# Entry
Amino acid sequence: GKARATIGTTVTLGRDNPPVTTGSQPTSECPVTAPGQQPATQGARSLDPHLRRYAARTAGMTASEIRALFAVASRPEVVSLAGGMPYLAALPLDSLSAEIGNLIATDGLVALQYGSAHGVPELREQICEVMALEGISAHPDDVVVTVGSQMALDMVTRIFCDPGDVVLAEGPSYVGALGSFAAYQAQVVHVAMDDDGLIPAALREALAAVAARGQRVKFLYTIPNFHNPAGVTLAVSRRAEVLEICRQHGVLVVEDNPYGLLGFDGQTYPALRSSDPDNVVYLGSFSKTFAAGLRVGWALAPHAVREKLVLAAESATLCPPTLNQLVVSRYLSTHDWKGQIKTYREAYRERRDAMLSALEQHMPAGCTWTRPDGGFYVWLTVPEGIDTKAMLPRAVTQRVAYASGTGFYADRLGSRQMRLSFCYPTPERIKEGVRRLANVLEGEIQL
Ligand code: PMP
# Structure
């Protein structure tokens, strides 16, 4: 291939692709070639003695391009605009530590015990208060606590999708959701977006096309606010229409909203769930508003669906971790959590500003990008003829990493796009990263 550096780590960026060699120093974080193992080359797959045992559904399970990149992108000399790691430095660790110690001292026998698959009741009540900020009125019984909203995505797909069923999702869409859909062998049909989010006319067209093929759409998966990876928000004026189209066609809506409270001007938008409670399953998370490592998220679903979700959750995990749920619950009742969200918003806003001004300043002609009002991501389109995935090893050699666009599509579109995250690096590092990226792109244009 075109990769220039040959010493170091081999990162397999996708099942069908030859390994890409990047970087200079192997690190202990590089999982690919451990002592006594075969190097991760294409041949390694056929050396797997278990190959003929795997269930058919594992064929759709491929390494996320972003995860594969983590090892190289997390080296200190590389500015990583690839990952979506929240910026946690603003958390009050001392008082959290005291709170957690307290929790174990006073309620340890509950906190360290099994709980119900449904989730801790007091947390479910507090989750309803959080959702009220976006206009949702819900009963705590209809909330199911999950291990991050990722588990909710998995559960929802598990209870609705048989192999071959169609799921509609924005194009591009969240890589973790695409992973769940693939794991259950659902077929993803993408629906186009513009700067105002999902395009209602494109949704109608997609539904008509699927119907014409005689296939069954199980649900529309949508991220209305501060989209991952596109960075756009569904215009409020489109929301009723999207809901109406789905209702007309008998299609359930799965609304994934981990970033809704991270609008940079403190603005929130009415959740889809708030106007059509019976046809929307809403997914929420404390990962971006509090702490991702606790892995506490939730699903709010119509009664019957909620029952199925609880059964599915029971068989997956017995119950979500009691300790983590109680940590979140105590945090919400003893800390200024709204103030903390404001602190996060301000940090992310400063980073977004740094990224947008650096893009303005450095990007070569022909590049376009979205301008997010919240969340973590900018979606960048590069001039025709440049393949962002093929370019990635050269970018890493020049010490900048991004997430190439193809990982965000089920159908390998996105080769002229990339996702740039501004959530984690400092504003200075973001500017430097964008400057390096612009240099790499200039080099490609001249090739
Ligand atoms: N949905 C979207 C759109 C996300 O961006 C993420 C995290 N990157 C998740 C779901 C999963 O979040 P978690 O499992 O941490 O709640």
In short: The pocket of 4'-deoxy-4'-aminopyridoxal-5'-phosphate is lined by residues 84, 148-150, 174, 176, 223, 228, 256, 258, 285, 287, 292, 297 (CB under 6 Å). The first strand starts at residue 9 and ends at 11. The mean pLDDT is 89. DSSP finds 15 helices and 16 strands in the chain.
